[in-house]
């Protein structure tokens, strides 16, 4: 069975698709919903529609157009959504429902602390609406799943997979009954990997018209039940990366990213440069732009691994994330060919980086840790082929960036104390 994943940002597309690469599928992430030779032979294709910042109607239209362009026979649709419900996910699901059948909505990702109980998302046990991330971008808006889907025009119902996690056949019967009732979006409570696995088992071989809606959590369980080439339980073999300095771009301002950067500096001895937002807002017209660009080039030319972070100031607005990420990528664009590997934290940062480097697709190879994907460029005319790691900004263990850095340096994780998991 082939899988088409449609995501609204690049790091999300990669962290959802990486489970299929780990299960032996040839897996490609692409920035454009257009079939190219780079996609030939791929079992799993993940598209970044880049719709998170669009108006809901425009996001839904672009998502539906991507499905119409990229869908094929013998292929299942997985609509990847953010595990903390950011973006226009409900409008996008509503647009796809008319084309693909009932939406089975299960955004839980227990490995990263996201669970669903009573139709609501919890982040490490804290209700989503009480988290700093939700308050920063969605203060005063409802966070429960049903309200958002019903506002997009869908008829919803809820099913507790946790209660049926040892009975996937019974779960399948319940899902079929919901579809027969005319439910358009079925919200599934899942608080553990076992319940997600039961949901995957209950739906994987169904002939009914439906599509999955979730984060990387459900996708990993679907992939694990559908391995290729004897890949079950086997770590993928990855050829060494080319060597050379590692460039780390961090566009996320989350506390999780802050801790990850701190560990990378401490354990990796990586040079850090914080780029003021004012420089990125003004671009080439800012007096410090060219000096910063030259400083970056000197460090990379000398073989120094460099951590570039977007700073914060009193004028900061979360809505300007894409603008700042695009400017950061433009700042380093002349120096991409000096790198042996690139790490990008935050979906907008990752997309801006690949666009500036003229990389339209990645073949995913392996997973550094849950949700942190490593790959290589595909379909590029350039002979420069660095390793690429993408990671969403607000999750991962404290050592995620350090582990990604070691991976691109072809080094093995040293023995350390147990990981600190973000709260």
Outline the structure in words:
The chain has 2 domains: 2-224, Rossmann fold, CATH 3.40.50; 246-408, Four-carbon acid sugar kinase, nucleotide binding domain (Molybdenum Cofactor Biosythetic Enzyme, Chain A). It is built from 14 helices and 18 strands. The protein is globular and about 65 Å long. It has 423 residues and is an alpha/beta fold. The model has no long low-confidence stretch (mean pLDDT 91). Helix content is 36%, strand content 22%. Helix 12 (321-332) runs parallel beside helix 13 (347-356). Strand 9, helix 6 and strand 10 (185-189) form a beta-alpha-beta unit. Belongs to the four-carbon acid sugar kinase family. Pfam families: NBD_C (PF17042), SBD_N (PF07005). Residues 3-221 form the Four-carbon acid sugar kinase N-terminal domain. Residues 247-401 form the Four-carbon acid sugar kinase nucleotide binding domain. One of its GO terms (molecular function) is ATP binding.
CATH topology of the largest domain: Rossmann fold
Q: Tell me the CATH architecture of the largest domain.
A: 3-Layer(aba) Sandwich
Strand content: 15-25%
- CATH homologous superfamily of the largest domain? Putative sugar-binding, N-terminal domain
* Proportion of residues in helical segments: 25-40%
> Tell me about the biggest sheet?
15 strands, mixed
Radius of gyration from CA coordinates:
21 Å
Count of structural domains: 2
CATH class of the largest domain: Alpha Beta
Family: Belongs to the four-carbon acid sugar kinase family.
Keywords: ATP-binding, Carbohydrate metabolism, Kinase, Nucleotide-binding, Transferase
GO molecular function: ATP binding; kinase activity
């Amino acid at each position: 069975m082939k899988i088409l994943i449609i995501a609204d940002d690049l790091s999300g597309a990669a962290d959802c698709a990486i489970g299929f690469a780990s299960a032996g599928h040839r897996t490609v992430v692409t920035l454009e919903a257009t079939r190219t030779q780079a996609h030939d032979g791929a079992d799993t294709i993940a598209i970044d529609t880049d719709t998170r910042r669009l108006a809901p109607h425009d996001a839904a239209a672009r998502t539906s157009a991507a499905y119409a362009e990229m869908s094929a026979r013998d292929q299942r649709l997985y609509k990847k959504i953010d595990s903390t419900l950011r973006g226009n996910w409900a409008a996008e699901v509503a647009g796809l429902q008319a084309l693909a059948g009932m939406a089975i909505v299960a955004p839980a990702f227990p490995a990263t602390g996201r669970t669903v109980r009573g139709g609501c998302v919890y982040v490490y046990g804290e209700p989503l609406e009480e988290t700093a991330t939700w308050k920063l971008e969605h203060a005063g808006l409802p966070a429960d799943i049903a309200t958002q889907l019903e506002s997009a025009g869908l008829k919803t119902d809820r099913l507790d997979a946790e209660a049926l996690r040892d009975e996937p056949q019974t779960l399948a019967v319940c899902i079929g009954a919901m579809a027969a009732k005319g439910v358009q979006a079925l919200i599934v409570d899942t608080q553990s990997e076992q319940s997600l696995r039961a949901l995957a088992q209950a739906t994987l071989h169904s002939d009914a018209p439906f599509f999955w809606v979730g984060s990387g959590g459900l996708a990993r369980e679907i992939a694990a039940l559908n391995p290729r080439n004897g890949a079950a339980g086997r770590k993928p073999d990855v050829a060494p990366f080319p060597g050379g300095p590692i460039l780390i771009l961090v566009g996320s301002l989350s506390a999780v990213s802050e801790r990850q950067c701190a560990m990378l500096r401490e354990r990796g001895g990586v040079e850090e440069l914080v780029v003021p937002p004012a420089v990125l807002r003004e671009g080439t017209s800012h007096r410090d732009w060219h000096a910063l660009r030259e400083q970056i080039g000197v460090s990379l030319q000398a073989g120094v691994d460099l951590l570039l972070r977007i700073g914060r100031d009193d004028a900061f607005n979360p809505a300007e994330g894409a603008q700042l990420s695009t400017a950061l990528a433009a700042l380093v664009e002349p120096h991409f060919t000096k790198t042996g590997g690139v790490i990008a934290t935050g979906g907008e940062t990752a997309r801006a980086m690949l666009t500036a480097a003229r990389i339209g697709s990645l073949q995913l190879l392996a997973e550094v840790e849950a949700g942190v994907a490593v790959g290589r460029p595909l379909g590029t005319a350039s002979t420069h082929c660095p390793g690429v790691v993408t990671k969403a900004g607000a999750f991962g263990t404290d050592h995620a960036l350090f582990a990604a850095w070691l991976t691109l340096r072809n080094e093995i994780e040293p023995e350390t104390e147990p990981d600190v998991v973000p709260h």
